Amino acid sequence: MQQNKVRKAVIPAAGFGTRLFPATKVVKKELFPIIDKDGRAKPVILAIVEEAMSAGIEEVGIVVQPPDKEVFAEFFKSPPKKELFDKLSPQNQEYSKYLQELGSRITLLTQEEQEGYGHAVFCAKKWVKDEPFLLMLGDHVYSSDAEKSCTSQVLDVYRQVNQSVVGLTIMSGEIIHKAGCVTGTWHLFNFLLSLTQVYEKPSIDYARQHLRVEGMADDEFLCIFGLYVLTPKIFDFLEEHIHQNFRERGEFQLTSCLDRVRQQEGMTGYVVKGKCFDTGLPDAYRQTIIDFRI
């Protein structure tokens, strides 16, 4: 397979945010504020976009519900009203201009009906075209434990292995029923994993029997971190599931299609040197506010 530069990132942001109701009745969860490491109060989606672009991504496609397109466009593409701009500090006036430049590299894509995470990713097919792309969650922010950002690490691995890459993290057996999990054989121990299975939200019994990884502690498993570099082959399998109306838990899911890409093209897991902060749950969002800037 010929290697292509990863130029585009896709961020699904079309969910209803039901777990953060009633706040999400008036504010999209992707627009909830956090304090970033530079001390600025930012909506979550901005921190994610900046993470992507700082790693060399040139264009970002954000998948939103049609009624929300105006809200995201207002933030990324419209300058502040003059009376607000005039009251900003010189530093924030410069940052406002920077936001407009950022917005010129953002495309707002729409998911007409909310039919699952896999369906949201599929809505980016025409925009991505025939290129590998970075996939990021719309309610997760990342903090690196290394010199390179979490996203840069995953992109570096893609350039090294020239196949789809899934960022991984270690989770205890108590919570893996909430996550996508993987197993495989180490290529570089504690670093790169040749994946042999990708499985969504396993029971602890299933994980103990089928998802053990050499060298991992008892009841610790490798789970999906929330950063992926995927080849466009993923869209073929998503399209097939949608046309066949193949749903899992009532929706079109991504994980089973990831496993099909793995079977056809191979897939590498990479244990990210960093932490992933979930802002889509009340307690996790509260903890992100406390810990993310540290």
TrEMBL record:
One of its GO terms (molecular function) is nucleotidyltransferase activity. Keywords: Nucleotidyltransferase, Transferase. Its EC number is 2.7.7.9. Residues 8-287 form the Nucleotidyl transferase domain. The keyword Transcription does not apply. The keyword Hydrolase does not apply. It comes from the Bacteria. It catalyses: alpha-D-glucose 1-phosphate + UTP + H(+) = UDP-alpha-D-glucose + diphosphate. SUPFAM superfamilies: Nucleotide-diphospho-sugar transferases (SSF53448). Coiled coil: none annotated. Pfam families: NTP_transferase. It is an enzyme of class 2 (transferase). Belongs to the UDPGP type 2 family. PANTHER family: UTP--GLUCOSE-1-PHOSPHATE URIDYLYLTRANSFERASE. This is UTP--glucose-1-phosphate uridylyltransferase. It comes from Brasilonema octagenarum UFV-OR1.
